[in-house]
From TrEMBL, chains A, B:
<dbReference type="InterPro" id="IPR011032">
    <property type="entry name" value="GroES-like_sf"/>
</dbReference>
<dbReference type="GO" id="GO:0032440">
    <property type="term" value="F:2-alkenal reductase [NAD(P)H] activity"/>
</dbReference>
<dbReference type="Pfam" id="PF00107">
    <property type="entry name" value="ADH_zinc_N"/>
</dbReference>
<dbReference type="InterPro" id="IPR041694">
    <property type="entry name" value="ADH_N_2"/>
</dbReference>
<dbReference type="InterPro" id="IPR020843">
    <property type="entry name" value="ER"/>
</dbReference>
<dbReference type="InterPro" id="IPR036291">
    <property type="entry name" value="NAD(P)-bd_dom_sf"/>
</dbReference>
<dbReference type="Pfam" id="PF16884">
    <property type="entry name" value="ADH_N_2"/>
</dbReference>
<dbReference type="InterPro" id="IPR013149">
    <property type="entry name" value="ADH-like_C"/>
</dbReference>
<protein>
    <recommendedName>
        <fullName>Enoyl reductase (ER) domain-containing protein</fullName>
    </recommendedName>
</protein>
<keyword id="KW-0560">Oxidoreductase</keyword>
<dbReference type="InterPro" id="IPR045010">
    <property type="entry name" value="MDR_fam"/>
</dbReference>
<feature type="domain" description="Enoyl reductase (ER)">
    <location>
        <begin position="22"/>
        <end position="339"/>
    </location>
</feature>
Amino acid sequence: MAEVRNKQVVLRDYVVGFPKESDMNTVEGRITLKVPEGSSDVLLKNLYLSCDPYMRILMSKIDHEGFGCYTPGSPLAGLGVSKVLESGHPDYKKGDLVWGMTKWEEFSLMNHSKHASLWMDVVLASHILVSSLSTGMPGMTAYVGFFEVGSPKKGENVFISAASGAVGQLVGQFAKLTGCYVVGSAGSKEKVDLLKNKLGFDGAFNYKEESDLDATLKRYFPEGIDIYFENVGGKTLDAVLLNMRFHGRIPVCGMISQYNLAQHEGVTNLAHLIFKRIKMEGFIVNDFYHSYSKFLEFVLPHIREGKVVYVEDIAEGLENGPAALVGLYTGRNVGKQVVVVARD
Amino acid sequence: MAEVRNKQVVLRDYVVGFPKESDMNTVEGRITLKVPEGSSDVLLKNLYLSCDPYMRILMSKIDHEGFGCYTPGSPLAGLGVSKVLESGHPDYKKGDLVWGMTKWEEFSLMNHSKHASLWMDVVLASHILVSSLSTGMPGMTAYVGFFEVGSPKKGENVFISAASGAVGQLVGQFAKLTGCYVVGSAGSKEKVDLLKNKLGFDGAFNYKEESDLDATLKRYFPEGIDIYFENVGGKTLDAVLLNMRFHGRIPVCGMISQYNLAQHEGVTNLAHLIFKRIKMEGFIVNDFYHSYSKFLEFVLPHIREGKVVYVEDIAEGLENGPAALVGLYTGRNVGKQVVVVARD
């Protein structure tokens, strides 16, 4: 069997500070489109790749236990939607559309047993979920973070940072469906308009235009915040702690404002965890497989009825992947950032 | 009915920074030893007063919602053991020994309905709990923080800061009874010896002698920490976050290292909450009345059998109260700090 071209986005070297496009190279590798005899590998043609904030963490040399890190000279890895070209694994067959962990390249030979924990076994050909990258991993993240970690009650006050992002926009809609009052912060007028006009938030503000976040939060939440869905960390978290209500919950999904800093910003108001008996809990969606069917049961009808919508930012072509990924950390994307490698 | 002398410790003015003895005055008030006709007040003769770290918070002008603050010119308030001299309340009668919220003075007229939430209704005359100040509030705090917030499992690794303090020493013993590996930090050789030789800790260190807390924790916990019982905050918390295990829990009981600082130290490693899926939860013992009988059921047999012991630091005389209280914040006390106002 002849080899074919396999374009790849590889990490040049471990990243310090803000990632730049030049931290990645687009190279032309070669691949034989064949699953090795007797192996249980699956050969994928990658269609869509997901740009997610956590990927910055993997670009650092430090392995944050379990998060691991990328290898310089090798392609990035991340979530993607792919088509099965050939399968040595009984759960997959040629033509299946799957989503889960794959690599930033045109074709990937993935080993199911190694990546089983990453939901390669979710086939979505027949799903209404057109873009599983948008509603799949971020949706599941929003679902478990908001419902299972946040334990919302009807009428509660919910604040979401990075609210127009992949996860934030869904948390906001889930919170509205739960009967909560929902305010989000984002980094541009366009995003704020989106939150208010398209995504149904009760309020939204551009944090870059607020000189006193504490005062801003007091304006939007005169009675305080019951649930803060944490995506950014740093100064925002510090201001939020001053504005939490008794027995508030802070599901900690991400801290994107901190990932590129050599020294993270210090959070000084943690004593409010005691004063107000606040629960702050980090979570990773991978720990919640058991809730996946519950999530689908919840989200699919809402998507079908148009009660949950989704904003995506699409970059065309693998070679535009590095710019799309880097854009996450300056907030260039509006909505969930996806890279199209191929349409089918 | 004639008035008698009522020595009081009053706050001079709101405190900024470290509290000093001179922030309090010992004054001679007068009191009529009589419950007003028709009232449900209880007249107490105060015997023992409890010095607790949270009291510094009440000395600041800022009311941390629900914590409240002391009033300059008025006596401090805190937990105490008192004898009922006269009672307008059906639950108490002359001669009862009670513990709960009282004032820093010889005699107090307390209103049960106002202070009901503070366990005035726990009569201990017949209890084996000789010093209810030591095993009562701190014991209950240790119990709910460790068991209900910390959810310990046999064999887990537990780290406790301010470990020889009122709450810490009990958390350590409860953790040993649960089959955990327990290490504590404290601020002097004497306290470290106490932890290792009297209180049964597996290890203990003097944090003042450790220049690299992260390295120290890695030495005591090569496999990481499952439960960190947080009493101090600041730099210790920051080092602990680097050493937590997956799904670790941090019951946040206090942050004594921070209460005297105008600007609290910044905690920079909170992203580890995500990496390791850590739950950090502030709690206040007052929220857990419902667990009080469970606590007694657990603790009384252990005290009777000598399996839970207690180290106290006794100051004689109300006039020595300010020095005793201030000593908490420099770590002068060894064990639970109590002030004796009268022996009976």
